[in-house]
Design a protein that fits this description.
Elements (H helix, E strand, L loop, with lengths): L6 H17 L2 H9 L6 H10 L17 H12 L7 H15 L2 H12 L21 H8 L3 H16 L12 E2 L2 E2 L4 E2 L5 E2 L2 H9 L2 H17 L8 H13 L4 H9 L2 H16 L1
Antiparallel strand pairs: 1-2, 3-4
């Protein structure tokens, strides 16, 4: 199976990478987060001009009619920024929900403004209406999953969250929530049934290498101030193996990243930049 990118996909990737370098430099991204200015309307406008919003939609609605793989190439590159703003949420996820669930009249009324960036649409859980019997988060999430485009991801994510649902927003243990008793029971992607934090921990412990690789990727992203790509994966696997050999100690994982060439080179580059200034 040939998994290499097509010539068109390589062009899409290059445009997205250049966009990240020009519009979302690391120092600017840091400043936005510090000032809580992560929504940047000018980025939405420029993304629309390039054709990234609604890019999987047919051209008659303002889209580009590209494949899901083409779209994935673009948004993976944008995610390495990471580019702030609801570009994917509005321009892909919500746009596809409207396309699949709405009538033709609704599509023509709603989708063009999503594609040109004048409308920002994000999916949300439905709040209880006045006089309506209170619903639990689980009940609302189950209703949310009835949309096919939402169910794809939520079937995998939701059981992890349900298993921790006994913890409220500040980490306090609870047995009841709005809408009734907390129901932490769920089934993970591999078929394992979980009914709370203990069962979830046991399930994760069955696959320690997967858990450690994920933590390694997230910690490397934080430590190096950039997203990872396929060239980083050998190092991720190497650090994960070292951590396994070290009995999965946190210190082994952290030192594996700190001693790695990409982290050391980033530190050297920062020192050089400071001395130059």
């Amino acid at each position: 199976m040939d998994l290499s990118l097509t010539e068109t996909q390589e062009e899409f990737k290059k445009v997205a990478e250049d966009f990240v370098k020009a519009e979302v430099p690391a120092h600017q991204m840091t400043q936005w987060y510090k000032n809580k200015q992560t929504f940047q309307p000018q980025l939405i406008k420029k993304a629309a001009e390039i054709g990234w919003l609604g890019m999987m939609l047919p051209e008659e609605y303002g889209g580009s009619g590209v494949s899901m793989m083409d779209c994935a190439v673009v948004f993976e590159a944008l995610g390495h920024g990471p580019v702030p703003g609801p570009l994917f949420t509005s321009g892909v996820l919500s746009a596809q929900m409207i396309f699949e669930a709405c009538t033709e009249e609704q599509r023509k009324a709603l989708l063009p403004s999503v594609c040109n960036g004048s409308s920002i649409v994000v999916p949300a859980l439905t709040d209880n209406e006045a006089g309506q019997e209170a619903q639990s988060l689980r009940a609302r999430m189950e209703a949310h999953r009835r949309t096919p485009s939402c169910a794809t991801c939520h079937r995998v994510m939701d059981p992890l969250g349900f298993a921790l649902e006994n913890f409220d927003g500040v980490g306090e243990w609870r047995m009841k929530e709005q809408g009734g008793k907390v129901d932490p029971v769920g089934q993970l992607a591999d078929g394992t049934k979980v009914d709370g934090p203990v069962a979830l921990r046991q399930a994760l412990n069955k696959h320690p290498e997967m858990f450690v690789r994920t933590v390694t990727e997230k910690l490397m992203t934080y430590g190096m101030g950039r997203g990872l790509d396929y060239t980083d994966m050998p190092l991720v696997r190497s650090i994960a193996r070292e951590t396994a050999a070290g009995n999965y100690k946190w210190s082994v994982l952290v030192m594996g990243i700190v001693k790695s060439a990409p982290f050391q080179m980033k530190k050297a580059a920062q020192v050089q930049a400071v001395s130059t200034n």
